Amino acid sequence: PQYLAELTNNVPTTRNVQYYTEIVFKHATKRKLIQAADSIANDGYNDELELDTILNDAERRILELSSSRESDGFKDIRDVLGDVYENAELLDQNSGQTPGIPTGYRDLDQMTAGFNRNDLIILAARPSV
């Protein structure tokens, strides 16, 4: 009984998912950095490649890794407002037609403007609905 009680205290829970996600992301980024460094080193030993090509490729690889670390996080409303306005204009121009993939449910299509290919859609309702 005591072992089981201790076991429940040491088992990872969803409450710590952010912490574990950061660990996985950190190690994945380190692996990608090692792969990039290995590739850059191999390019350095290749006498057929121009120095500028090697430097540009190395810089590109490191910048790609660096930019992947940046979080989407919060965005300034001024940066997002243009996209929202364009989407509203598109909806207005397509009056009566769903610009995305229609669901077959008119009210849902009006609320979502249809689904897009890259969207993760989760629909939920009470069991009695």
TrEMBL record:
Annotated SF4 helicase domain residues: 94-129
InterPro entries per record: DNA_heli_DnaB-like_N_sf, DNA_helicase_DnaB-like_C, DNA_helicase_N/primase_C, P-loop_NTPase
A Pfam family hit: DnaB_C
Entry keyword Hydrolase: yes
Keyword annotations of the record: ATP-binding, Helicase, Hydrolase, Nucleotide-binding
An individual GO BP term: DNA replication
PANTHER family registered for this protein in UniProt: REPLICATIVE DNA HELICASE, REPLICATIVE DNA HELICASE DNAB
UniProt GO molecular function: ATP binding; DNA helicase activity
GO cellular component: cytosol
Organism, scientific name: Staphylococcus cohnii
Protein name: Replicative DNA helicase
